[in-house]
Amino acid sequence: MRPVADLIESLGAKPLRKLVKKMSKDAHFGFSDLKEALDWSTEDATRVVWALHEQGVVDLGAQPALLDQLSEHPELAPAQTLADVLGRMTDPHASNDDSGGEDEDEDDEGYGDEDEGYGDEDEDYGDDDYYDYEDDDGGGEDDEEDEDEEDEEDEEDGEDPYWKDEDEDERDPSLWPSGIDSLVLTVSQREPEPFASREPDFAEPIRLAMAFVHLRQGRSISEELRATLLDHMARWHVNDGLPTELTTIVDGEPTEVKLCEGYDWSQPTPHFDALVEALGGPAAWAQAMLVHAFRKSWRLAARRSRPAVLAASVEQLPRLLVAYDSGASQYREGYEVLVTLRDDPPQALLAAARRVDTKGTEAAVADMFRVAAILAFERAGEPIDPEADELLTLQGVYFEEYGDTRGYVGLEHVHAALRALGPERARAVLERVLGREPYYATYAVPALAVLPEPELIERAVEVVVPFIDHPTGHGVSGWAEVGPAALPALVRAFDALPTPQDDKGVKRRDALRVAILGVLARARQEDPSQGEAEDRFLLPGDGFADQYVFDMALRTLTPLLQRLPEERAARVLQAYVEAGSPHLERGLVLLAARPVPSVLGPAFRALAVGVGGLSEEGRVRSALAGLQSVALERIDEILPHATPPLVRLLTNAWGEHVLSRFADRLPKAESSVQRLQRLAKDLPGPHTRIYVVERDEERDASTSLGRVGDVALGIGEERWPTHGDEAEPMEHVITLDLRQMPHLRGSFEDDVVGVAVFVSSRRDNEAYEPHNDEVAIVRIKESDLELGEHDPRGENSCIALRVTGVDVPAATFGGRDESLAPLRRAIYQLGGRAGGSPLWLQEDEDPGSEFLMQLDESLVDINLGDSGILYLFEDTAFWQCH
What value, to the nearest 5°, has the Cα angle with vertex 423 and ends 419 and 425? Predict the structure, then answer.
């Protein structure tokens, strides 16, 4: 192991000064740069930071974000030094910007000259003054007093102090960043004495965090600190949830343990139970959670808040259930609590329902209480109070449209309640709900499964069908719950619909068709051979051209096709294949779900012809991937129809390693340029010239003005742009040779032949806004080329560029012409494209100058965030990302 002084000396004084400054501005990236400078050794970087702290170059007490980076090697942390750091720390969550580090005056001489070593004991390595912190929110008793004062003010104003949202606590559940927590837990377990001696002097937030450390170490803490910790943990768990994993001490060693199974807080582990016990026990934990749960008016996590809900009185329950996260969890957990986990008296449940509003989500919660009351009456063997069914609205159900758990939540409890009422009272409830406004009447549809009488079904069709105009909702999805009994009435209603005269008529027809498909899927679960006459509802129709409608129908189309006899399934699939785009794409999706061999050949023939006009290429690739095994079995039927565009599509779906097996029988895959030329061919309207910019690694880059990489041509040291206080040379990104792009030269002086783009750092920059100071645009004249190549960093690497012009319709860059969508998508997917107009990843920008080019990381080795794009203009450059 190299001595730490040697490591620091190897960095050099000036680079060290830069690294220290970088770590003061951004601990994560600064520490990462330090690791890179030390051959990516986290251990060496950690040793260096501890040494710099002890020398006074950095102050870990004022830079908790940097201390957080040192947790990977706790064995390197000197216990006394760490305890002293905590003694000087006031806010463990202070960002580096809070420290004022980047604004501090630096004594350049304090780091020595470039040629001087680090190890001179008399040399000053930095400012000895620590940054000052102001603790805006120290926590503890002051917070509680403030809250009490606010509560008293609310009570004086006549407001309920519990009916409000809490401000989210900005602290971690461990009260400081997880890295610091793990570091202190490990080091103080190994060597507790330095911490014990300094702890009385710790700031209040640090004392509280240390109390949580002691709690996990099995050491005693004061009851005052225990109560504060209990309140903090309960508040955090209610607001955001404790981490599902936590480092604690097991058999004397720091160990990461799970606090719940998976991410389900209804299944706590013994480690969580032990934590709760240490905080005061389950009863104290539930009461503390209840206090904070009552302060939430919405977004109360259902399963996480279960201890509070179970500890609440029945009178308190409505407020908590109304505050649950909206959606399926509100209904699922609500019924779990009301029907399964609690055993409240039925009359108390009815009284609780009266405490809830009768509108919106609260009306659904009220109905959940009524359903629970009916079931409680039944369990107790008591007569069911007429109030329960007289006020029942059937709104206590939720239909989950998306995901693996798609379907009704709570419907089984509503069905059970209706059955408990008996046929006569259940019929009265259904008739009353069907007599309400159409929207509320739709809630009766899924409940008809309990009493699927023809008269009730006909009444429901009469009320609901004129109202529905969307392929979702109870008026559509609910019919599948009724099952085959609903099919005759729905088919008659569909056939009676007039030819759609407007968009609303089309939507109503689509919605009813989706409803019929849902009923058919349920019916054919029992008998796949029945209902051949209804196969017509599976065929492509006008409505299925709409992506959203098809997606809604696909959930039932897929199982229906899978259950159909092969001959009937083939007829349906063939109809999609022959209908052309977009039905061809839909047909391939269905074919992947039910790969009928006789349809494969026609499908690939149609795809070879229509590949240029596909509107959903991504979906087609996924379908082709699903068809790979069966398609390869019949590859001889497919290869004769292979065209270059189809080969490209199959390559993207199956991979080059698969297609290479048939290379001698396939046409050569089209290039990006050929693809653009094919898509743009014969398109009407005025055209504009764009340039496809690609790497040309076979060409000698030394004589190429157009290039990417470290080395620029025609820009010497005097004109090489610099960045920051240290005037560090920027990094070359790309140079465009305007002689290869004559349509772009009009934006520049006649003697300008190239434009070079530089950035402060290709790896880490903040050039995400127009006219930022992290990029520089340099114009290159013909006479500049005599300067030759230059790279101040000495990397000496670059790659030449190949530029190809393609004429495309100008309308490709504006408007929403769907006929141009495939071409627009192909242009957007290019790694580099000059000319035309920008195709924005995010919001449109207007830098006020001429657009030159956009590129991504496939063309240039640069960090552009998440799948980002760099946009180049005449006088600026910036990037956008997801």
Answer: 90
> Is 81 within 8 Å of 53 (Cβ atoms)?
yes
Distances (CA, A) of 291 to 232, 235, 316, 671: 12, 9, 11, 65
* Token duo for residue 5: 């002084």
Distance (Å, whole) CA 572 – CA 312? 56
Give the right CATH number for 677-880 from 3.40.250.10, 2.30.320.10, 2.60.40.10, 3.40.50.720: 2.30.320.10
Instruction: Report residue 611 as tokens.
Output: 């590949």
For residue range 571-626, what is the model confidence (pLDDT) as tens digits? Answer: 999 999 998 888 888 999 999 999 999 999 899 988 888 776 676 778 888 999 99
Instruction: Please state the pTM of the whole predicted model.
Output: 0.69
All CATH 2.30.320.10 domain ranges in the chain, comma separated: 677-880
pLDDT of residue 15: 87
What are the tokens at 167? 């401000």
CB–CB of 758/731 below 8 Å?
yes
CB 577 within 8 A of CB 604: no
Element (H, E) at 152: helix 140-156
pLDDT tens per residue, range 532-576? 788 899 998 766 667 788 888 888 889 999 988 999 999 999 999
Strands lying side by side in the sheet with 877-880: 775-781, 752-759, 731-737, 707-709, 798-809, 687-696, 832-834, 851-855, 869-873, 877-880
Backbone angles phi, psi at 519, to 5 degrees: -65, -40
Mean of the per-residue pLDDT values of the chain: 86
Structure tokens at 370: 């009524």
What is the gyration radius of the CA atoms in the chain, in angstroms? 35
- pLDDT, residue 122, reads 36
Structure tokens at 653: 């779906």
* Residue 695 and residue 838 in contact, taking contact as beta carbons nearer than 8 Å: no
Length, in residues, of the chain? 882
**Phi-psi label, residue 327: left if phi above 0, alpha if psi -120 to 50, beta otherwise:** left
pLDDT in tens, 330-367: 899 999 999 999 999 999 999 999 988 777 678 999 99
Task: Classify residue 690 by its DSSP letter.
Answer: E
- Give how far the C-alpha of residue 197 lies from the chain's centroid of Cα atoms, to the nearest Å: 46
Q: Is residue 802 within 8 Å of 699, Cβ to Cβ? A: yes
Q: Comparing C-alpha atoms, which of 427, 421, 440 is closest to residue 363?
A: 440
Element (H, E) at 834: strand 832-834
Indicate the pLDDT class of residue 296, thresholds 50, 70 and 90.
Answer: confident
- Burial class of residue 663 (count of CB atoms within 10 Å of its CB; 0-12, 13-18, 19+): exposed
Is the preceding peptide bond at 770 cis, omega within 30 degrees of 0? Answer: no
Say how far apart CA 823 and CA 825 lie, in whole Å: 5
